[in-house]
Amino acid sequence: MSSKKSQGADERFLRVQKDPRFWEMPERERKIKIDKRFQSMFHDKRFKVKYTVDKRGRPINHTSTEDLKRFYKVSDSEEDEEDIKSKKAAEGKKKKKVKEKLVKADREVMKKEEYTERGVRVVEEGESSCSLRCEHKHPAL
Asked: Is the dihedral of CA 98, 101, 102, 103 positive or negative?
């Protein structure tokens, strides 16, 4: 018999683990949000079908309204507005952080430029400010 390995250790499944198509869907995104206009479908008799047998012929006690509640969520317009506001606030915070980082980087660059502009070059005795291979003669050499 082959030894049992965990899926995480098997090289064949690494692609599947990293591919977002195979990730589990987040809880808040699973249910489709519908308006209050459609909330009557949860209570209306026209949308209610009672199942007595499942697809394989086994007897069950199940209704279609349970399926509707499993797949749909009635959203309040207030909740939607709050979600939009929170998303905008999060985007604003991200933009603000990026802007702060850019400003900080600009300040560091400016500081480095100031040091190079204010710097003093020390010339030792025997050296000149021009290169040593210049054509005119220096008295110290």
From this structure: positive
